[in-house]
Amino acid sequence: MRTRPFALMACVVLAGCAAARAGLVVETWGGEGRFAHAKTLTVTGDGKRISVDLSALPGATKVSSARLVCFRKPPAGHTEEARIKVQIVPAGGGQPLRLVAPWYDAFAVPASVVKGGKTLSFEVSEFPGWIQEETFLEVSFDGKPAAALPAVTNVAAMHRAGQTFITWTEIDKAFSDALPTLAQLTKAREALAAKRRVRYRIYRHDKPIDAGSIAGARLLAVVEPLSGYNVRGVSLNRLIYQHQLRALKDPLFARSIARGPFRGYHPGMAQMGQVVVDRLAVEDGKPLGAGTGLYVHHPAKAGKAYYAVVACVDGRANTAALGKGASLAKPVAEATGTGTPVFQGIEQLKVFYDYPGQRRRYVQWTAPPLSNLPNQYYNWGVYAPAARGGAEEPLALGIYFHDWKALYLKPSWPHPRDMVLIATNDAPWASFGYGYHESLGTLRSLAEGAVHDYTARRIDEFVKWVRKAFPIDAARMSCHGQGSLGGTSALHYALRHPTRFALVVTGFFDADPKSSPAIAQIDRRRVRTHLRSLEAVWGKKEWDLKTAGGKSIWQDRDLVAFVGRNAKLALPFMSLGTGSQHHTWPQETDFMKALWKAKQPFCTDFTWGGQAPRFGWLNARRDSVILAAVPTKEALAKTPWYKHARWQKAAMGYWGGGTIGSGAVPTDVVDTQDRLELTAQIFGNVTVRNAQQFKLHPGENVRWQVKTGRRNDPSGVATADANGLLTIAGLSLRGKLIVTRMTAEPAKTAQGGKEGITK
Question: Would residue 37 count as lying in a domain?
Answer without folding.
Answer: yes
